[in-house]
């Protein structure tokens, strides 16, 4: 792998940047691998990266139906935070934030992780109680989160409107200063480049059509659009299409897939210093380094794989944005798109074993998977390599829907469902 | 936004309706007699198909009546609407 550094940049400058190699290869699939990852988004690529790096598996294929990072990895609003309520969630999201903090150096790839602070607004008594409960629970778990008055919130984010004459006035906020944003595409590309350098095969335009099973029911391979591949271990990381893939293995999942929308404005000069979210009036907003305001809308109310949501959902969010930030009301929106998110009944992910030996699943991240990308890949790689979950993802087993040991993060998952 | 034809009121915008999720999920008649797997399947597991989906809708800001709808989840096209209690068109009553 051609490492990126000031020296290589200068050396390339001297030869007209002709010497840069492709960041990952596009190999034809081999007939056999030690492990196959289904889904080449951030989570799948991170899984392959950590399988190769920490568990010594190098005969790995990542199979991607489209192009890597083209699903929810390239469609989300890139918000990173770990202020979830329960210990189990705190552990996994904080694991991810700690990996984020060293990720650019780890991957030798600038993922542009910027810890500019994530502020969540309270508009009523219930919000105050809920957010304060999260602040206290987070602090008990060693996660930074603090309570701000409306005036303190405005001091942290000057564009914020805290007028008492708003329909839903801001009466306080919680702030996780270590939260922030990252460059979503760079995360997929950085993991792909790192995994490829360790021998992982990244195979795009290759859809998994079915599973091959042995006499004991265990997975022995996958049927793909590029032919059959033998393997004893398959990790499905297919986000919104997990139910579709798992149905090909004969499994039903506790998932429903909904379109989730986001939109960006025309680019403007730096006007917005942090991330602001409001669960109650449903808005979240930050500014990308290109200057676009990145705005997240909600999910549609019905199951859909159409990757486009209803216009009224985006309108609703823009109304809330214009109430909180009246100065943005004349900005034009450049693009609006949807991604398909797989939502679990308790709004927590499923990472672990399935009833089929050799088949592992990492899904159910719902509306908030991007922030967990490094942590999710790290513990899922452990799960696939060892055949048993890492202590961090053990509570997120598929089996919890049978035992009833749910991890109810409906309040911390910011998007209203 | 979907245009939904309420069987009682006619075509109305989706914002008048509330989606009630997958249709034809029967509560086990004797919950005490089913095991945890069957109960979990009833409570949490869903078909979530990419294709034709049978789902319940409520005309919440209208007649407040429930009905069933067949919709293609890949295209969001509404395929058919039928009354609560009727079995899914093209399938035997279960």
Lay out the secondary structure.
The complex is a heterodimer of chains A (417) and B (94).
Chain A: H1 6-14, E1 35-38, H2 42-55, E2 60-63, E3 79-80, H3 87-101, H4 103-107, E4 118-122, H5 125-140, E5 146-148, H6 150-156, E6 172-176, E7 180-181, H7 184-197, E8 201-203, E9 208-213, E10 219-224, E11 227-230, E12 234-236, H8 242-247, E13 256-265, E14 275-278, E15 283-287, E16 293-299, H9 311-324, E17 333-343, E18 350-353, E19 359-363, H10 373-386, H11 400-403
Parallel strand pairs in A: 1-2, 1-12, 2-8, 4-14, 12-19
Antiparallel strand pairs in A: 3-7, 4-6, 5-6, 9-10, 10-11, 13-16, 13-17, 14-15, 15-16, 18-19
Helix pairs in contact in A: 2-7, 2-10, 3-10
Chain B: E1 3-6, E2 10-13, E3 18-22, H1 36-43, E4 52-58, E5 66-72, E6 78-83
Antiparallel strand pairs in B: 1-2, 3-4, 4-5, 5-6
Account of the protein in words:
The complex is a heterodimer of chains A (417) and B (94). With 417 residues, chain A is an alpha/beta fold. Chain A is built from 11 helices and 19 strands. In chain A, the strands form 4 sheets. Chain A has an 8-stranded mixed beta sheet with strand order 5-6-4-14-15-16-13-17, sandwiched between helices. A 6-stranded mixed beta sheet of chain A has the order 8-2-1-12-19-18. In chain A, a hairpin with a 5-residue loop joins strand 9 and strand 10 (219-224). In chain A, helix 2 (42-55) packs parallel to helix 7, helix 2 (42-55) crosses helix 10 (373-386) and helix 3 (87-101) crosses helix 10. Chain A starts with 5 loop residues before the first helix and ends in a 14-residue tail after the last helix. In chain B, a hairpin with a 5-residue loop joins strand 5 (66-72) and strand 6. A 4-stranded antiparallel beta sheet of chain B has the order 3-4-5-6, with no helix packed on it. The termini of chain B are far apart. The model of chain B has no long low-confidence stretch (mean pLDDT 94). Chain B is mainly β. Classes of the chains: A alpha/beta (417), B mainly beta (94). The A-B interface holds A 241, 243-244, 247, 252-257, 301-306, 310-312, 342, 345, 401-404 and B 1-2, 14-15, 18-19, 21-22, 36-37, 40-41, 43-50, 53, 55, 71, 73-76.
């Amino acid at each position: 792998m051609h490492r990126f550094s000031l020296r290589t940049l200068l050396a390339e400058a001297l030869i007209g940047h002709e010497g840069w190699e492709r960041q990952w290869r596009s190999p034809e699939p081999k007939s056999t691998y030690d492990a196959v990852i289904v889904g080449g988004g951030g989570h799948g690529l991170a899984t392959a990266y950590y399988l190769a790096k920490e568990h010594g598996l190098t005969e790995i294929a990542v199979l991607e139906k489209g192009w890597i990072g083209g699903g929810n990895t390239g469609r989300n609003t890139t918000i990173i935070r770990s202020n979830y309520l329960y210990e189990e969630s705190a552990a996994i999201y904080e694991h991810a934030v700690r990996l984020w903090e060293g990720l650019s150096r780890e991957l030798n790839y600038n993922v542009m992780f910027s810890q500019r602070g994530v502020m969540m607004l309270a508009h009523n008594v219930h919000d105050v109680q809920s957010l304060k409960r999260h602040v206290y629970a987070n602090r008990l778990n060693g996660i930074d989160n603090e309570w701000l008055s409306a005036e303190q919130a405005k001091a942290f984010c000057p564009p914020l409107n805290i007028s008492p004459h708003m329909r839903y006035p801001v009466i306080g906020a919680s702030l996780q200063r270590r939260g922030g944003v990252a460059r979503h595409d760079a995360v997929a590309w950085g993991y792909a480049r790192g995994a490829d350098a360790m021998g992982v095969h990244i195979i795009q335009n290759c859809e998994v059509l079915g599973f091959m099973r042995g006499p004991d029911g265990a997975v022995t391979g996958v049927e793909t659009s590029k032919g059959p591949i033998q393997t004893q271990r398959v990790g499905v990381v297919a986000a919104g299409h997990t139910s579709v893939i798992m149905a090909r293995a004969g499994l039903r999942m506790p998932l429903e897939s909904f379109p989730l929308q986001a939109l960006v404005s025309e680019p403007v000069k730096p006007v917005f210093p942090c991330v602001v979210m409001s669960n109650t009036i449903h808005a979240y907003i930050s500014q990308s380094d290109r200057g676009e305001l990145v705005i997240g809308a909600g999910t549609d109310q019905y199951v859909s794989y159409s990757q486009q949501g209803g216009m009224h959902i985006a309108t609703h969010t823009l109304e809330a944005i214009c109430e909180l930030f009246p100065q943005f009301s004349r900005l034009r929106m450049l693009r609006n798109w949807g991604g398909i998110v797989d939502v679990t009944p308790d709004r927590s992910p499923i990472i672990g074993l399935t009833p089929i030996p050799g088949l592992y699943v990492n899904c159910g991240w719902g509306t908030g998977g991007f922030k967990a990308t490094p942590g999710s890949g790290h513990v899922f790689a452990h799960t696939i390599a060892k055949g048993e979950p890492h202590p961090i993802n053990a509570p997120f087993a598929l089996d919890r829907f049978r035992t009833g040991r749910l991890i109810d993060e409906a309040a911390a998952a910011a998007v209203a469902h | 936004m979907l245009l939904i034809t309420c069987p009682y009121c006619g075509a109305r915008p989706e914002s008048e309706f509330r989606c009630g999720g997958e249709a034809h999920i029967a509560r086990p008649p004797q919950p005490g007699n089913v095991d945890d797997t069957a109960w979990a399947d009833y409570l949490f597991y869903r078909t979530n198909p990419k294709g034709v989906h049978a789902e319940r809708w409520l005309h919440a800001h209208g007649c407040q009546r429930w009905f069933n709808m067949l919709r293609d989840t890949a295209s969001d096209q509404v395929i058919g609407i039928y009354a609560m209690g009727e079995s899914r068109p093209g399938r035997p009553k279960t």
